[in-house]
Amino acid sequence: xxxxxxxxxxxxxxxxxxxxxxxxxxxxxxxxxxxxxxxxxxxxxxxxxxxxxxxxxxxxxxxxxxxxxxxxxxxxxxxxxxxxxxxxxxxxxxxxxxxxxxxxxxxxxxxxxxxxxxxxxxxxxxxxxxxxxxxxxxxxxxxxxxxxxxxxxxxxxxxxxxxxxxxxxxxxxxxxxxxxxxxxx
Length: 185
Known about the structure:
two-stranded parallel sheet; PRTase-like; ComF/GntX_DNA_util-trans; ComF family protein
């Protein structure tokens, strides 16, 4: 008990000297908040797509690659909270964001009581030059946590990126028939 109180005091002092900030709005986090403040977490644009109904993510793949179902947790907007957290995950080595999102999405999927089993979670790989420069693949921690929740195998050696393509941050994405130019500067 004494160690616990001392640990809390040390944590409080550290938070005063080096406060943890919300990755969505960069304001200091309150007690009990982790990575995102309560306001930003409640403002996240959830897709509310699921694996049961046909959704716009399913339609993206029609005629391109055979899939059973596709899903997405969040909508991306060029100037939103999702952009900020993805930027920190990709470029600021904040891999705990991947754990956080993987836990959240895995829990959300499990709540849906799916009638099918997901065998593998396979992350999209980075080209070896980009991986060497960044030092990690930003989707690895997300995929590992998601696989854990789905009781699936995490397999990161099946896909290989052979072309060192330009960033996709300026490509146009079509959702619900609307063209959206994406940007993650």
